[in-house]
Design goal:
heterodimer; A: alpha/beta; 10 helices; B: ABC transporter involved in vitamin B12 uptake, BtuC; globular
């Protein structure tokens, strides 16, 4: 039972009209693992995440969360089953205060057994947010906004955390902070599925990695072995996607 | 002078309530619900039907009936087309609007009917030396109380926080477990309640109801939300108030020879505002995120 993956994507195909964005993509995320999906722009990485969250409907294939099929369910139902996402661009509610952003997450988390202790722990993790509870989320810096987006996801007490391009649009120093946070989450046993263009960074924290290219899984292996592949740099970084 | 200020404030606050009802539904559905005017019209006819009852009962019946009609409107007409493109939803709203107008014509006839509701409110009252009909301070009080309650619900309750979040970023709200159905039903029912409040105040002021009484208010509400910045609730309320106040003030300051062209001046004002602030006065701040 414990060997069962938290998230299992099986033969997923997604089409935008005649354009096939994903073709038979299969990935697995086991409990406590950090999995990175890397690949150039337009490879279908974000499409994969949007489909897992339920915002996009697959043309074929299925998504399972803890052994139960979730593809076809509404996004809010999937979220309530324990799937949280930190989307690209963060998508904090800018007209709401930091406190209200967190409160919204707490409403979701309470249904999953989230309590005041979780709230306090989360604010201890991101002390900056505690100081800015009454500020509108629109006044946060990029790094602070990313912290809020992650805090919000954690407060929903998720089974798995999805991250869409966590380094996108952030200053290098801030990116360091975000990835340090990911390492900390991993040590605490959080299960993470991350999509990232910054392959070097993504492989540093990941246990397993998939390379997505033209909507298909090109390579699936441990992050360790992928990093050591000699031709990897040439094949991937050579295209200059992230750097 | 004070009298004109009261006129302007009363009309402005009535427009603010109307605009808020439109902005609420627009916020969560990106739909300008043109059938909103017919919610107001239904409210008017409920007042007519219950005219013999004590006024608290009339108010209660109107609020309940229009809230229910708004609820049914969402379930029957708008939910099936929610995933369709915006044009489909817009046309649906026109269809619902025309349908309700025709049902009113069919049942009650085309001609306006007089209603005695609140006729005692047209008596003048002396406020700081100005003589104004009681209905004006009553309107101000009712609108102020409604807005305070509304703000309280939106700021302090869980549903309110969820609705504000959904109004800003509907998809993200769903990704955080906010039920799309719940917030949309809540927005429709709340907009129905606002329409009912507007209907009560309007009928008390004009003393008549007709199948077409919702047409002008919905246009005003729509323009007000555009001035305020589509999607901003505060913007809609401020836009409505400004539009009402400007309309009344122009009525006063325009020379007699051009006063019949008042609305041309009102909409010139609207155009000027939009030239200066193309996104409206309270444009959605989503575009201004710092990186």
């Amino acid at each position: 039972m414990n060997d069962q993956p938290i998230l299992k994507v099986d033969g997923l195909s997604v089409a935008y009209g005649p354009v096939r964005a994903l073709r038979g993509v299969s990935i697995e995320v086991r409990r406590g693992r950090t999995v990175s999906v890397i690949g150039p722009n337009g490879a279908g990485k974000s499409t994969l995440l949007w489909t897992i969250t339920g915002l996009l409907k697959p043309a074929a294939g299925s998504v399972e969360l803890e052994g139960e099929v979730i593809s076809g369910l509404k996004p809010e139902t999937i979220a309530r089953r324990g799937l949280a996402i930190v989307p690209e661009g963060r998508h904090n509610f800018l007209s709401l205060t930091v406190a209200d952003n967190l409160r919204l997450a707490q409403i979701a988390g309470r249904r999953r057994g989230g309590d005041e202790a979780l709230y306090e722990r989360t604010l201890d993790r991101f002390p900056v947010l505690r100081d800015r509870l009454d500020s509108p989320a629109s006044q946060l810096s990029g790094g602070e906004a990313q912290q809020l987006a992650i805090a919000r996801a954690l407060l929903t007490k998720p089974l798995i955390l999805l991250l869409d391009e966590p380094s996108f649009g952030l200053a290098p120093l801030t990116v360091e902070g975000v990835f340090e946070e990911l390492v900390r989450l991993k040590e605490e046993g959080m299960t993470v599925l991350m999509v990232e263009q910054n392959a070097g960074k993504a492989l540093e924290v990941a246990d397993d990695a998939y390379i997505l290219s033209n909507g298909e899984v090109e390579t699936a292996s441990s992050a360790e072995s992928l990093k050591s592949q000699e031709d990897f740099d040439a094949a991937y970084f050579g295209e200059g996607g992230a750097f | 002078m004070l009298q004109h200020i009261f006129d302007a404030a009363a009309t402005g606050s009535l427009y603010a309530v109307i605009a808020l009802g439109i902005a609420l539904v627009f916020g969560v559905m990106r739909l300008v619900n043109f059938a909103y005017g017919e919610l107001l019209m239904v409210g008017g006819y409920v007042v007519l039907l219950t005219a013999g009852l004590p006024w608290p009962l009339i108010v209660a019946c109107t609020l309940a009936a229009v809230g229910i009609v708004a609820f049914l409107m969402e379930r029957i007409a708008f939910r099936p087309v929610r995933e369709a493109d915006p044009t489909t939803m817009l046309i649906t709203s026109f269809a619902v609007s025309i349908l309700l107008q025709n049902i009113a014509v069919w049942i009650a006839g085309r001609r306006p009917k007089g209603v005695s509701f609140g006729s005692s409110l047209s008596e003048p009252v002396d406020i700081a030396g100005a003589s104004v009909p009681i209905v004006e301070p009553v309107t101000l009080g009712v609108v102020a109380a409604s807005l305070i309650l509304f703000v309280f619900i939106m700021r302090k309750t869980e549903l309110g926080v969820q609705m504000r979040a959904a109004a800003e970023d509907f998809r993200m709200a769903r990704l955080m477990g906010v039920r799309a159905d719940s917030v949309i039903v809540a927005a429709f029912v709340a907009s129905g309640v606002l329409a009912a409040i507007a209907a009560l105040l309007l009928v008390a002021t004009t003393g008549s109801v007709s199948p077409y009484m919702g047409l002008q208010p919905v246009l005003i509400g729509f323009v007000a939300t555009v001035i305020g910045g589509m999607g901003s609730l505060i913007g809609a309320a401020v836009g409505g108030f400004a539009l009402g106040a400007v309309t009344v003030l122009l009525q006063v300051v325009l020379p007699e020879s051009v006063v019949s062209y008042r609305d041309a001046f009102v909409f010139s004002f609207v155009i000027l505002v939009l030239l200066a602030w193309p996104q409206g006065l309270f444009a959605n701040r989503a575009a201004e995120e710092r990186v």
